Amino acid sequence: MTDPATTDDSADAAEAPLTIVIGADTFLPHVNGAARFAERLAAGLVKRGHDVHVMAPSATHAEHGVFTEEIEGQPMTLHRLPSWRWLPHDWLTFVLPWMSKHHARRVLNKVKPDVVHIQSHIVIGRGLAREARKRGIPIVATNHVMAENILDFTTLPPVLDRVVVKLAWDDAKRTFDMTRAVTTPTRRAADFLESTIDIRGVIPISCGIDANDYTADLTPREANRLVFVGRLTTEKQIDVVLRAMALLDPTLGVTFDIVGNGDQRRSLEQLAEQLGLADRVTFHGHTSDADLRALLTRASAFVIASIAELQSIATMEAMASGLPIVAADAVALPHLVHDGENGYLFEPGNVEDLASKLNRVLRQTPAERIAMQQASLDGVKMHDIGRTLDTFEALYRDEPLPG
């Protein structure tokens, strides 16, 4: 007969708080989807009582060390590694690759974690995985990387870009082979990874979002306002949105709020002037969370032309704000946008098709609009951050995944 006390002790041990090291090549003050996911994951785990240590680049080379930082309202330990500015990029800092194992040894020797979760196989995650394996520490890896996200910043000719990408994916395979599990935000992203390198069983786990942080306004709009949130880089194809906007009927009075910064900002500002849109396009740069949420709440529709989204937290934020979405039919965006239900999909790069879909969403009847808004609100429920945290906790503990 099983001793009840023994059963209770085993259950308590199974649910005991974990010590977790998260390795992230991009984290605050970086602003991008991968960084946002790592921040929300770390904060959510801390809120659940776990001891979380994050290895991330320092903001500047001089600002390295171990700090207690508050992320998403939760205090956690940040191991800020000595980093250097990547000059082709407007803000990115990176850790010297040949120092990644050294930093990993130092942190693992001090923290002695129960599990390591790498957010990238490139630098910090690469060294961390190899050192964790030597110590028998379980490793979980999440992939946020697509080639289109990095090729603009290699400064190499295209023929060498292809060689570098091939070598990078080969090295990713070696890193992922060391892990207990490999995850990525959506099923389409998992299929992409499995078709790119020879691995199987990639687990799709949504980046997650707390929809309660966003406010939906289901009342009719007094003006036609488009909004985009994200980095202003080539693969986001914001120029396609501007050219499509120029084709819309001027009587619609469409304005466009662009939230975010990036290396393409100046050229996009010039394009808006050339298209005669300068007085109707506002470049907000980085905003506070409160200002971002206000812009989403008042908008008529969210538009995203990107061809390199493995999920798109910004699109989920727009859905949680009750917006119809007009998105490129590329990579993971169709996972979020169901054509004719919570928005419309357009052929990537096709300016005329995008203009047609924007015209359609902006000319909806009140009943059609409310139906799309409600579809966005319903669709984002499956991406609740609580479900994401439950799933990663199960992976960390090597337990069956929740349904």
Automatic annotation (TrEMBL):
Swiss-Prot/TrEMBL keywords: Glycosyltransferase, Transferase
One Pfam family from the record: Glyco_transf_4
SUPFAM superfamilies from the UniProt entry: UDP-Glycosyltransferase/glycogen phosphorylase
Residues in Glycosyl transferase family domain copies: 221-368
Domain (Glycosyltransferase subfamily 4-like N-terminal): residue spans on this chain: 31-211
Natural source organism: Microbacterium awajiense
Coiled-coil positions: none
Name by which UniProt lists this protein: D-inositol 3-phosphate glycosyltransferase
Lineage: superkingdom: Bacteria
InterPro entries linked to this entry: Glyco_trans_1, Glyco_trans_4-like_N, Glycosyltransferase_grp1
Lineage: Bacteria, Bacillati, Actinomycetota, Actinomycetes, Micrococcales
Presence of the UniProt keyword Flavoprotein in the record: no
